[in-house]
Amino acid sequence: MNLRNVLTVYRKELRDALRDRRTLVSMFLVPAVIMPAILFLFGTVSHQVMKKARSEPPVVAVLGGEDSPAVRAALAAEPGLKVEAAPADWRERIADKRLRAVVEIPADFQASLAGNLPAQVSIYHYEGEFKSGFAVGELRRFFAGLRERTLAERLSSHGLPAGFARPFDIRTENVAPPEKVGGNSFGGFIPYLLILLSFTGVIYPAIDLMAGEKERGTLETLLCTPAARIDLVLGKFLLVLTVSLTTVACSLASMAVSLLVGGLALIGSGRLTAGLSQVGSKAGGEVLPLLDPLGLAGVVVLVLPLAVLFAALALTISLFARTQKEAQTYLAPLVAVVILPAVSGMLPGVELNATLALVPVLNVALACKELVSGVWQWTQLALIFGSTCVYAGLALAACVRMFGRERVLFRT
Amino acid sequence: MIAASRLTKLFRDKKRGEIRAVDDVSFTCEPGKIYGLLGANGAGKTTTLRMLATLLAPTDGVALVAGFNVATQPAEVRARVGFLAASTALYGRLTARETIAYFGRLNGLDDARIATRTEQLSAELGMDDFLDRRVDTFSTGMKQKTSIARTLVHDPAILILDEPTLGLDVMAARGIVRFVRECRARGKTVIYSTHIMSEVEKLCDRVGIIHGGRLLAEGTLDELRDRHGERDLEEIFVKVAGGEGAA
Nearest CB to A12: which of B87, B102, B150? Predict the structure, then answer.
């Protein structure tokens, strides 16, 4: 191997890539601008839709309850609901979204409450429909309040204290450090994202550098030089790896910035979603999930050999293909092959063990999940890092070997 | 000097079985001479030249290029060969200067030597006006000049030219012919494959007629004319190849 030749090829490929609009788009523009813009737009639109839905009281109807005028009056006075009399075709109206829910008040409901008799209120709704669900929530809140008040009156009438029917309260408190909470919540998602991005990042440059060069005729020009095949492969491989890691870095940085900016904007207007405010935030003022920085560094170290494996694998496949189109056909389905183990790493109950530590992609996903939570199992980490390095080395060796095969280079 | 002895190349194809692309081909090409390899499409010209340029390994036989064996000393061979073919394209996003420098570096030249060679080649080929423009903006003629500069950057003793005028307009093709003549004048060994008879008549000192992978006739143009009793090279070619239906 001649390092000068490797660097010559790498520098040329880097210059070429930086002049290629498609590479720039996939490496910088998509992860750094387009994806955050889409996410931000989606977030803003969904926020506005939710806000609008909540600002308009859902239309509900009351069935029965003619002998319970106080309850009906209280319900009609409820500011979060627009109450109507139930029409005959109320079921169809719910299905057609003209009516969000119907509450059925049984006969003698008020009398039952006064007489300490059991009673049941029924709510009819459209399962899974957002506004119907919102109406159900409002109705449940109203009747839960009524139940609480009725209970308090009954206890009082019997001279019993308010706590009689509530012997004790249950309080929960998180004692885990915020970075562990953040790691547990995002532990599966971060490696999934890193793995997916590092793979999608290799696809375009690998196709362009091997199948593309073959198709354009520049590979034959390159093969005429005295540079050893391994120098040419390594130079190209380094470029694919660079693009992949740059894509990952740009994506993560833009996501962090988007989350921070978007989250702060929402906090500023007091509309931070409940889910976000819970994540890794003690005071509610922090937007980004707190993650163990050492754990994140560990994740990067583990993902590196995986990116090497992906780059070498994609180059090998691309080299085998006759054309860029053929290479795309081979590489596109591989995204699913990579996603599956990466997603499996997010599933609850899938824990790292010695066998899974040898399964490529899945092993890294599982280890990363533990690392960001601050759990360091050194033996298994060494096994995972070592095995991934071996797989990456084998893939690179296969690529170099294939680059020396004339049947592949001149496959027509 | 190029010396090919009983050069053979077999390909295995799932549908067609074993294909003898080049079969027992022997010839010699001396320094300061142009050897023309004349043949129809699919005759075996490109495979022969790719073996000489070490892009393909011979199945059998030996070829020595500048005294080095193509099978066992490919890097030494490539360092002394300039290979130009219709299929050897350029990088569109590099400038002509960057292209020359890239191939200069891969041929082991240092930066000072690359700068000197770039100036020399640019002056010789008339590339000054477009030396710093990107190749994808070039006309066919500009691309051809850049390809020639790329081929000659390391000043190789041997030139292997595989149908270099294929797809070129008249002016660009004339430029190639002039360049080949100049190479001969500088004492380079040139092997030139083509199916264009007029190019052979203009350029070649010796001619080998290849058909079906076999070298069927070889000699100077005069020797071939005397041997086959024909003045017209096309008639000689048809006769050697086995008649009108041979292609």
Answer: B102
User: How high is the ipTM of this complex?
Assistant: 0.89
The candidate with the shortest Cα–Cα distance to A174, out of A263, A281, A276, is A281
Residue of B nearest to A6 (CA): B106
Q: What angle do CA A66, A71, A74 make, to 5 degrees?
A: 125
CA distance A306 to A295: 17
Tokens, residue A268: 């500023």
Q: What number is the average pLDDT over the span B87-105?
A: 93
Q: Is the pLDDT of residue A281 over 70?
A: no
Backbone phi, psi, residue B218, to 5°:
-155, 145
Structure tokens at A410: 């001149």
- Residue A280 pLDDT class (50, 70, 90 cuts): very low
User: Quick one: closest CA in B to A223, which residue?
Assistant: B55
The answer to whether residue A47 is domain-embedded is no
- Of A165, A186, A215, which one is at a domain's C-terminal end? A165
- A54 vs B95, higher pLDDT: B95
Residue numbers of the domain that contains A72: 54-165
Contact B94 A15 (CB under 8 A): yes
Domains held by chain A: number = 2
Q: CB–CB of A226 and B79 under 8 A?
A: yes
pLDDT in tens, A12-37: 999 999 998 888 887 778 777 777 78
